[in-house]
Each structure stands twice: as C-alpha cells, then as structure tokens.
Input
Amino acid sequence: MPISKELIAYAIQAIAAVPRVQMSPQSLAEDAILLSYAFTMEEDYLAAVASTCRALSQIEQKLVTTVDLKYQFATWQCYHYQHKVAQGQRANMRIVFRRTKEGIQVRAFGHRRLPHDFYDLLVSR
Output
C-alpha cells in the first residue's frame, strides 16, 4: 500500500517545524514524496521522518559529526544516519546542508539509493 497524501503532508509539517532549519518548500515536498518511494510501509516511513527530524535538530545543535563535501558542493556538508535506529544497521539516509546565521539551510534529505542515487538529486537542484 503506498504512503498516503495525508502522511506525506504530516511529514512535510513535521520536518518544517524543526527549529532553526530552513529548506525550500519545493525541495521539502519533493524529498518527502521521494522518501515514500524508499519506504513504502507506513511504519518505516514514519520512522524515517522521525529520524530526519531528530537528525536535523542534532545537526543544528552541532551534536553530530558531519562531512564536508567537495567540488561544486564545497560550501555544503553531509550527515549520514539510519532511517530506523537499530544495532548494526548501516546509515542509509543523507542530509546535505550548510550552516547559516539563522541555523542550517538544507539542500536535500533522503535515502542513499532509493528511488535513485541521492547525490544525483543534488546535481539537479
């Protein structure tokens, strides 16, 4: 069963409500929709949304280690995290962001490989 429009709207509202985090409304909506292709079960989708909100908050508070990107994304950083906290699970999610005076500006978030390569998405934005 595909993720409902109501659940995607909830995800958009939840992520948009994270304090001191800015993101283009179009990119936020697109990323929330793409997340529904990566996680087709409601439980997994909600876990990914909750993990994304938590990760954004931790990034903004500088509580996690991030990686500087290179080349055309040299002013951006990336954070890798799990969609669902589980022992031994690989970090299958990504957030690309940069710090601003107001907090952080998010360029994109999503699954590393589904529905397509996350880094290819960055090039198109």
About this structure: The CA atoms of residues 36 and 42 lie 9 Å apart. The chain has a mean pLDDT of 93. The longest strand covers residues 103-111.
